[in-house]
Design brief:
seven-stranded mixed β-sheet; globular; alpha+beta; 251 residues; endopeptidase fold (from Nostoc punctiforme); 7 strands; 10 helices; 18% strand
Length: 251
């Protein structure tokens, strides 16, 4: 059984159809239905309330802390910072214990299976999902070593509590950088794009906490026009009913 997205833009594509074409640097954007999501969307004048970056293990496995436990070159991963929810295994955690942590509620930075994230968010009524693909002629210009070092250094850093995330974003738009001890979703993506060499972060003119999910949408004028043109228009994604993931979350 498939769930048709309620997102207002265009026709949807099945996740399994697009997954083989996804690459490190692609973006997954979320249209939420909770009151928090609706508040973020209203404040940023955007259909999106959450964002994360897609990662292919083959691009980063030779750098940083070395091989990740259970990682698979054929799998598509998702690097995000998320408010508390029932956890998926964090692939950057070398000591993840499936039995001990199956009920854990995790908030903050993590690397998870993209498909499982879509399925878990679907079950938890997160809303609908879109992808923007990074279309570069020369991907050798991307700094995968810098990205892996960033990922290893901030994995499990917390998501800002409550109104703090709003304060961080407002401060960013006033040119006030946030302390790098907690990260909201778009702030994390901005730092990832800086690590890859795609944008420049300036502490006062363009701090990472200035970004929102809206900044990475096709409607935004915030990104460098060259980068904006290198990102494909949003493509709505539909996933299977995912009973194995949902069963795990129900326990």
């Amino acid at each position: 059984m498939q769930r048709r997205s309620l997102h207002p833009q265009g026709d949807a594509v099945h996740y399994d159809e697009i997954a083989p074409a996804l690459r490190t640097g692609d973006l997954a954007l979320f249209h939420g239905t909770s009151w928090i999501s609706r508040g973020i969307q209203r404040a940023t004048r955007s259909p999106y309330s959450h964002i994360g970056m897609i990662v292919r293990y083959g691009d980063i496995k030779d750098f940083g802390a070395g091989e990740m436990r259970g990682a698979d070159d054929s799998e598509v991963y998702f690097f995000e910072s998320m408010m508390a929810r029932e956890s998926l295994p964090d692939l950057l955690d070398p000591v993840w214990d499936e039995v001990r942590k199956e009920h854990e509620v995790h908030s903050g930075v993590q690397l998870v299976s993209l498909r499982d994230a879509f399925c878990a968010y679907d079950y938890q009524r997160f809303g609908s999902f879109s992808i923007r693909q990074l279309q570069l002629q020369d991907r050798t210009t991307l700094d995968f070593a810098g990205l892996r070092n960033l990922m290893d250094s901030i994995d499990k850093k917390p998501y800002p509590n409550g109104a703090v995330v709003v304060a961080h974003w407002i401060e960013g738009n006033l040119g006030i950088p946030a302390a790098l001890n907690s990260f909201f979703c778009a702030e994390l993506v901005a730092l990832c794009y800086e690590a890859l060499g795609l944008i420049e972060i300036d502490e006062h003119k363009n701090p990472a906490n200035k970004y929102s999910p809206a900044a990475f949408s096709s409607r935004s004028g915030m990104l460098d026009p060259r980068l904006q043109s290198a990102l494909s228009p949003e493509q709505i994604i539909v996933v299977d009913d995912c009973p194995e993931v949902k069963a795990g979350l129900r326990r």
